[in-house]
Structures are given as structure tokens and as C-alpha cells.
Design brief:
Blueprint (H helix, E strand, L loop, with lengths): L19 H24 L1 H31 L6 H8 L5 H13 L1 H4 L16 H37 L7 H10 L6 H34 L12 H27 L8 H12 L1
Helix pairs in contact: 1-2, 2-3, 2-4, 2-8, 2-9, 4-6, 6-7, 6-8, 8-9, 9-10
């Protein structure tokens, strides 16, 4: 990676509202997706739930993988990543949604998992719906909770600066309210930055280890168990490393979009894009 800090002081950007075109696109995609899922459920429920599972795995993997990228560059103190670290961290917003989207899958386990209706020959101790639901809900709640805590401590010092600098003309009440919640019990900028650095240094390795364990369980339960007779001792590492790669690629894509849309060319320069490309191909 490039050993430099070309960005210097990064410009502050706040997104108060979703752009009208993006809001319209989101609404149309939600309506289209809901209608397609409903139609599929009415025609072939098992296939619809399997498609739901694949989509849940795909988007959850990308979101969590991007957060792990932010944790990884924090652990390694990658100065090159400062301009793109926030972009990677922004994927944390999907994780609570992902947790809620898991619940329908568990209620529809009979449509999703073929082993529910099969003789398992001794695998019943692991492959049973109550235990599967319990371990995955507990594991993902822990992983997503650590991810949100990591995001909180990463954002808190900057939120303090933005709250001090924000004016009614540049920041609406919703944004100021968010800054106020993030900075509750504020102890001063220097103290808060030291606290955040200390907490992030402790959280990032715990988050990475929890990610490897929980995503390995997810891989066994939601990927390998779809073929109950198949077994692989490498499915866990394959899955969580693929998710990490997906998070890197998604961060790179979003970096290009935000670089142009938010006029961040002075902060996100070709060396940072080159480093992201090297990570993707590594």
C-alpha cells in the first residue's frame, strides 16, 4: 500500500436528505421486489424462499465485509485508507435491516432447508430448526452489535467536531439531533479522540475474530446444509473471505461514486483508488 497521507485534513460532508432521484429509485425497487417476491411465493414458494436466502446472504456479506475492511485498516493503521474508511463503514447501516430480514427465513425453514423433511442419520443434534435459529440469532446479534459499537466510536470524535461547527443554515434539526446523541457525555475533543482510538484498537480484533466465527456458522447453516450429504471443512473460511472481498469491491465502487458526487477528488486521489484495486486483486 502507498505509504502516504495525501488527503491531509479531509473535508466534512453531511447528507441531510436522500436525493429525489435516489429516493424514487429506492421506492420503485422496493415495490418491484415486493411484487416479485409475492408472485413467486404464490407460484413456487420453495423457489421463492431459496432466492430470498441467496439475496440475504449476498447483501449481508457485502455489508459486513465492508465493515470488516474498516476494522482491518484500523488494526493495521493504514494511513492510506483514511479517505475511504468512512465509506466502508457506511455499510453498517444495513446490518440492523439484515437482522430483521433473517426472521422470515427462520419462520419459513421448512421451505428453505431440505433437511427439515429428511432423515439425517445422526446430524439432528446440529441440524434442527430451534438450535439453528438460536445460534444464528445470537451470533449475528453479537456480530452486528460489535459492528455498530465500532461505528459509534469511529464516528463520535467527528460528530463532536461537526456539532460544534454546524449551523442552522448548513445542518437541519435531524442531523444536529444525531450529532447530539453520538456525543452524549462529551469530554472534550482531545479526550474523546484518545478514548475512541483506545476503544477502536480493542474492538477491531474482537470484531474480526467474531466475524470469522459467526460467518463460518452462517456458511455451514445457510450454505452447506442446503446439501445435507455434502461436507467441507473449508466452507467457513471460503465464505467469510469471499464476503471480505465483496466488501472491498463494494467500497471501491462506492468510493468512485462518492468521489464524483461529493467532489472529493482532492481527498480521494489516484493512489487511494490504486490501493483499493490492489486489495481487490490480492
Amino acid at each position: 500500500m502507498a505509504q502516504h497521507n495525501a488527503a491531509g485534513e479531509l473535508p466534512a460532508r453531511t447528507l441531510e436528505t436522500v436525493p429525489a432521484k435516489a429516493r424514487l429509485a429506492i421506492i420503485l425497487l422496493l415495490v418491484l421486489g415486493s411484487a416479485t417476491l409475492l408472485t413467486a411465493l404464490l407460484t413456487d414458494a420453495a423457489r421463492a424462499w431459496r432466492a430470498y436466502l441467496f439475496n440475504w446472504l449476498y447483501w449481508t456479506s457485502i455489508a459486513q465485509g465492508a465493515v470488516i475492511l474498516a476494522a482491518a485498516v484500523t488494526m493495521t493503521r493504514g494511513i492510506w485508507s483514511q479517505p475511504v474508511r468512512r465509506i466502508a463503514l457506511s455499510f453498517v447501516a444495513f446490518l440492523p435491516v439484515s437482522f430483521l430480514l433473517l426472521l422470515p427465513l427462520l419462520f419459513a425453514a421448512g421451505q428453505v432447508f431440505p433437511w427439515v423433511h429428511q432423515e439425517l442419520g445422526g446430524k439432528e443434534a446440529w441440524l434442527n430448526v430451534p438450535f439453528l435459529a438460536a445460534r444464528n440469532l445470537a451470533g449475528l446479534a453479537t456480530l452486528f452489535g460489535l459492528s455498530l459499537a465500532f461505528a459509534y466510536w469511529a464516528l463520535r470524535p467527528d460528530a463532536g467536531l461537526l456539532l460544534a461547527q454546524a449551523s442552522p443554515r448548513h445542518s437541519g434539526p435531524e442531523c444536529r439531533g444525531l450529532y447530539a446523541r453520538l456525543t452524549r457525555g462529551w469530554q472534550g475533543q482531545e479526550v474523546e479522540e484518545a478514548r475512541a482510538h483506545r476503544n477502536l484498537s480493542r474492538l477491531s480484533p474482537v470484531l474480526a475474530l467474531t466475524y470469522a466465527i459467526v460467518f463460518s456458522i452462517v456458511a455451514v447453516d445457510f450454505v452447506m446444509s442446503l446439501e445435507p450429504e455434502w461436507f467441507s471443512s473449508l466452507i467457513g473460511p471460503y465464505f467469510f473471505m469471499a464476503a471480505f472481498l465483496g466488501g472491498i469491491a463494494a467500497t471501491a465502487l462506492l468510493t468512485v461514486v462518492y468521489r464524483r458526487g461529493l467532489e472529493l477528488g482532492s481527498a480521494i486521489q489516484p493512489p487511494q483508488l490504486h490501493d483499493l484495486g490492489k486489495l481487490t486483486f490480492a
